[in-house]
Q: What sequence folds into this?
């Protein structure tokens, strides 16, 4: 089969409607939507009986191994609206030097080097399908880079806002991919406010996390891929770095859809939402037994991707974590940096800080008895470690000095 | 099928022997080898009749989409010696805004962010299989990073030498992945001399380009993948950034092996070896009608990966280019930087400078009538653009200043 069969073969689509994730209120498909009237994320619903008749795991296995092989479970109607930079399935790489039975799902292999590609390729394709000409969004870096790349490809203008201290590499990547990018004196939710305040007067479509319905549909492919990679038996536990939480919510949605399709059973992984101690609103709400999380003031962590003081989908994250029997866990910057170091040095896998946070949390969970060494555990490394300064490696720097050949 | 079936399923192996690429002299398989007695690269030979009976394109399509699905055409005998960081097939991404019919094979998606992973995963697995405890090699950056990562995973010590002006990100990546790394006052062939002079006294196994026989076997999987992705009809032209040339030589070898297996016909792509004007020894030799290339003095180019003044496989590169009806082409730094800019801004694809060189060369070839717009052309982007400073994007920097929300 040719590599592009997923992108060029017209296939039946099964979206029936959208509904408010809080109230269940119904919304029409194939129209532009932001949040629901209740101010909450919208979820896309499918005719799963129709999907069941059209698609089997065996048929999936015959298709090229990219995200678009799940077309029947995705919202894009027209093949011509698919924008793609090659969203290949990401590998799960065992950490052989860690105690236990633990794989890293290495999302850094996606276009633009992060899992943000999954959500943004879907959101931009749907924006194209629904006639959007300019998108705008806040970002801690990686989402903006993915949005810029796909918007460039789709011929859509992109306006991106990031905190002033976003690493240069991210800002330059966004600009290189043709977007207008602004640094903002504030955090990501401050950036989001600018988008919210300006979008109507400026004609921007707001692509913020969970404020349009399709990023979550892209992110849910992480759950679909995992099931396929584990032979349709989900792992026992998933550690997920949690900022806006789209991926965790998306995977949880994918699990329900797969069960309805008969592809998996009722068993679910325990979902561990991992945050940094310097920005842990979901952990605080989890421990307090709350369904919503209040804003975390003075947020700080070296793991910029999870420096998200407030998440519009907070209750969806907390509901899933609780229903799964999992937990919300916070780790220190020191522990996550050490985890990044260890995985690189011992297992040759260069993770991002947020990925390192999941390894640190796994170690805590194993030590604390939350996880058994026999259980199958998946950690999400959400971006390539190459996007981050390796300042922690300075202990090697004395060996980097130019040497004379005679000296060796 | 589970994701790791390629890594865990024992399969028959078919290596019969090795032979000198210049003289054809025969060498035993399953022993450590460097260059041949004639000082030339060794090539691995297989019982292709045996492979033909054991493996079909249809069977391949059923396996997980990573490099190890070609096990029968690779040298590793024992499943337990496979080191892997998830060498997934790389996508071919169309450049929709370019004139013609042109795809980028995006090798930046491999572990450690470059195509060097293909060669080094194989070389390190074979080093493990043959009992090596320390490897050493020169690098312009990416090969060293891949070697370090796989060596860490295999429990083999790695000693890496790179030119003093190798970008920090590469040096730090190598160190983070547990290798000893030295900067050297010289170019990559100077680094290679250090390895050559010290390896016997220090007990290092030399992993330099083409100085051991297995990196080429890993690199040839680029050719196998391309054939599969194009439905077993090879593209009309391939533009390959040429430093040491292992990939070009490897693909050419793969094409011959696939023809012997009956998987493809006699048609070959025209191979275009792309170099930078500031370091073009292969281009000079091609134009002079020579079979060997003399060292290029005062080599300079922003594309460090092709800043290779002298290649031990020069005649193999030149033979393949000539046999294919292709050509060796040089491009200016200005042209390759512009190509990187354009692909990012218009097509959302951030290439490395060496990948940009192939796009610049393609544009020249199209304008000069070497390639028709109807032909199917593949450019090799050998590494993720994220490894390179985006200094050329400074025109956007005035937009990056912190702004007050009122200003917008």
A:
């Amino acid at each position: 089969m040719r590599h592009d069969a997923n992108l060029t073969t017209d296939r039946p689509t099964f979206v029936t409607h959208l509904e408010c994730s809080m109230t269940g209120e119904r919304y029409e498909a194939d129209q532009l939507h932001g949040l629901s009237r209740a101010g909450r994320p919208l979820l896309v619903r499918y005719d799963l009986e129709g999907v069941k008749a059209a698609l089997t795991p065996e048929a999936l296995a015959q298709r090229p191994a990219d995200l678009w092989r799940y077309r029947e479970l995705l919202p894009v109607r027209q093949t011509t609206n698919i924008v793609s930079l090659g969203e290949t399935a990401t590998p799960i790489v065992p950490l052989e030097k860690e105690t236990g039975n633990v794989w890293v799902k290495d999302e850094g292999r996606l276009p633009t080097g992060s899992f943000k590609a999954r959500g943004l390729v879907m959101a931009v394709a749907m924006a194209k399908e629904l006639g959007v000409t300019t998108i705008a969004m806040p970002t801690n870096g990686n989402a903006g880079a993915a949005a810029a790349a796909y918007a460039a490809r789709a011929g859509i203008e992109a306006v991106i806002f990031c905190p002033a201290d976003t690493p240069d590499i991210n800002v330059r990547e966004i600009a290189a991919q043709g977007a207008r990018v602004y640094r903002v004196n504030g955090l990501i939710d401050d950036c989001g406010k600018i988008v919210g305040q300006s979008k109507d007067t400026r004609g921007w479509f707001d692509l913020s996390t969970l404020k349009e319905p399709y990023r979550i549909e892209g992110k849910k492919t992480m759950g679909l891929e995992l099931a396929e990679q584990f032979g349709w038996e989900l792992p026992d536990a998933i550690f997920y770095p949690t900022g806006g939480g789209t991926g965790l919510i998306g995977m949880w949605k994918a699990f329900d859809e797969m069960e309805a399709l008969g592809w998996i059973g009722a068993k679910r992984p325990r979902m561990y939402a991992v945050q940094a101690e310097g920005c842990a609103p979901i952990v605080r709400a989890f421990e307090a037994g709350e369904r919503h999380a209040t804003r975390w003031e003075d947020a700080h962590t070296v793991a910029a991707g999870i420096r998200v003081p407030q998440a519009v989908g907070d209750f969806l994250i907390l509901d899933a974590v609780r229903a799964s029997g999992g937990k919300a866990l916070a780790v220190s910057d020191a522990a996550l940096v050490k985890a990044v170091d260890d995985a690189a040095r011992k297992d040759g896998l260069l993770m991002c800080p947020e990925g390192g946070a999941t390894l640190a949390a796994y170690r805590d969970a194993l030590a604390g008895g939350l996880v058994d060494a026999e259980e199958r555990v998946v950690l999400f490394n959400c971006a390539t470690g190459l996007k981050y300064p390796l300042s922690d490696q300075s202990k090697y720097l004395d060996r980097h000095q130019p040497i004379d050949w005679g000296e060796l």
